[in-house]
Amino acid sequence: MPNTWETILSSPTPDAWVKKALNSLELLLIDHAHCEKKAATTAISLIHKYPHFNLAKTLSPLAREELLHFEQVIRILNKFGYKYKNLQSGKYARTLYDACSSKEPERLKDTFIVCSLIEARSCERFHALIPHLSPVLRKFYSKLYEAEARHCDLYLDLYTKIYDEDWSQRLAYFSSIEAEFINKKDDLFRFHSGC
């Protein structure tokens, strides 16, 4: 039975991105650290913005796990002799969030779908990279792969629990936007960048 991330993504990561990632390991790891930090921030922001849904029960543990992953990536950076630093953000997440509805409850519904897609793409990129990595990174990314798969499911489960409705049509809309982005030329290499 396929994982959720395999069924909701409309396109695999292009080989050109994998090749670029393997030749840009320092940048990949630094941006990966930023991705984990942003994922934690997103979870905390949702808890704050929608207190009436008691999202803390699900998203507080998620935020802690994302921050743990952030700390683990920082340790990997140090192990490889790389320095964590600020980076210009890519346009991937912004492209998806810009397509979200501006009205509630549609905005929260769209946010759950976008978060699930972002986690799915992270999972898929770990999966694409793992066979090519050193033993240290292979072991690390294999563990993160399992976590990202859970997070992808978690956001869709939240959607279903709160709204008790089918999200597949809206997911298809965002999945199409996401696939178009990762397949187009992108001058700024990032963990979620295009080619």
Question: What would your notes on this structure say?
Answer:
- This protein is mainly α and about 200 residues long.
- It has a single domain (about 15-185), classed as Up-down Bundle (Ferritin).
- The chain is built from 8 helices and no strands.
- The mean pLDDT is about 95.
In short:
The chain is 71% helix and 0% strand. The protein has 195 residues and is mainly α.
What structural keywords apply?
globular, mainly alpha, Ferritin, 195 residues, 8 helices
- CATH top level is Mainly Alpha
Distance separating the two termini: 29 Å
Q: Low-confidence runs (pLDDT<50, min 5 residues)?
A: none
Helix-strand string: HHHHHHHH
How large a portion of the residues is in β-strands, by DSSP E?
Answer: under 5%
User: For the residues shown, what is the average pLDDT?
Assistant: 95
What kind of sheet is the major sheet?
none
Number of domains: 1
Q: Radius of gyration from the CA trace?
A: 16 Å
User: How much helicity do the residues have?
Assistant: over 70%
Annotated CATH homologous superfamily: Ferritin, core subunit, four-helix bundle
